[in-house]
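quick q for whoever's on today - can somebody do inverse folding on this one?? i tried earlier but teh output was garbage lol. tokens:
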């Protein structure tokens, strides 16, 4: 196989992987197994096709920190939810963040993230939909989530737990693939969460560059001072 042919077949394989990842039905077992097989080539595959999500999410976190947070950037506590191999952590670190924690469902993806050495703590086998209680005491200044609100992964309700791990007046920043936004009526879900006092939408960059196959919306939410719905009354 000559190099251009080889390049084309690698690009095709990468595109197929990305497409296959959208058909996992949100099942934690299937997701973990799928990412076990993808961890070693994930960075190359997404890079091959162009992946701007991590840079944009990190730059939004930097802008939010400068605009709204009293705490110095190097002391701002950030949680990278669904950190994967650590692409967002690397971007955050290059922008001056130093207190970066991460978690992911996939142990294998997290092992890659650990190797970047940009995370303070990074933990695998953590399901965003079933977070251990220690996360709810953590009170991060900013929680970022890139590439997770995507078809076959996590439903919009995952935003509730991102709000719970973030301190009052802190921020949640998430990329939302366009196809996912349409399939889940994401704007309606956001209105619902706002009505319930879970999150306040602060900004949205619509139709931003995300990956070669599709754009995304980038949402910035603020966590209200006091949630109006008591924990035990939440669905
Ligand atoms: C497309 S990758 C994005 C990884 C990284 N944030 C990035 O932008 O490169 C999606 C990640 O979400 C993780 N994931 C999927 N469902 C999850 C869940 N329920 N809880 C935690 N992580 C999950 C996967 O293991 C995978 O690492």
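ok took a stab at it. sequence:
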């Amino acid at each position: 196989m000559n190099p251009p042919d080889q390049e084309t077949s690698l690009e095709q394989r990468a595109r197929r992987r990305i497409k296959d990842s959208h058909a996992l039905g949100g099942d934690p077992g299937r997701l973990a197994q799928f990412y076990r097989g993808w961890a070693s080539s994930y960075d190359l595959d997404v890079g091959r096709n162009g992946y701007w999500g991590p840079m944009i999410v990190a730059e939004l976190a930097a802008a939010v920190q400068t605009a709204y947070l009293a705490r110095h950037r190097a002391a701002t506590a950030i949680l990278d939810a669904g950190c994967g191999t650590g692409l967002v952590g690397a971007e955050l670190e290059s922008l001056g963040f130093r207190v970066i924690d991460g978690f992911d469902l996939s142990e294998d993806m997290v092992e890659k993230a650990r190797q970047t050495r940009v995370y303070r703590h990074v933990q695998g086998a953590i399901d965003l939909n079933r977070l251990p209680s220690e996360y709810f005491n953590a009170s991060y200044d900013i929680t970022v989530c890139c590439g997770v609100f995507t078809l076959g992964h996590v439903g919009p309700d995952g935003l509730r737990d991102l709000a719970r791990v973030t301190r009052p007046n802190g921020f949640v920043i998430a990329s939302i693939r366009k196809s996912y936004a349409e399939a889940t009526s994401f704007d309606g879900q956001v209105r619902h969460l706002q009505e319930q006092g879970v999150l306040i939408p602060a900004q949205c960059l619509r139709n931003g560059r995300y990956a070669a196959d599709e754009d995304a919306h980038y949402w910035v939410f603020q966590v209200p001072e006091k949630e109006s719905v008591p924990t035990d009354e939440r669905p």
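fwiw The domain at 51-233 is CATH 3.40.50.150 (Rossmann fold). also The chain has two domains: 3-48, 51-233. so keep that in mind when u check it
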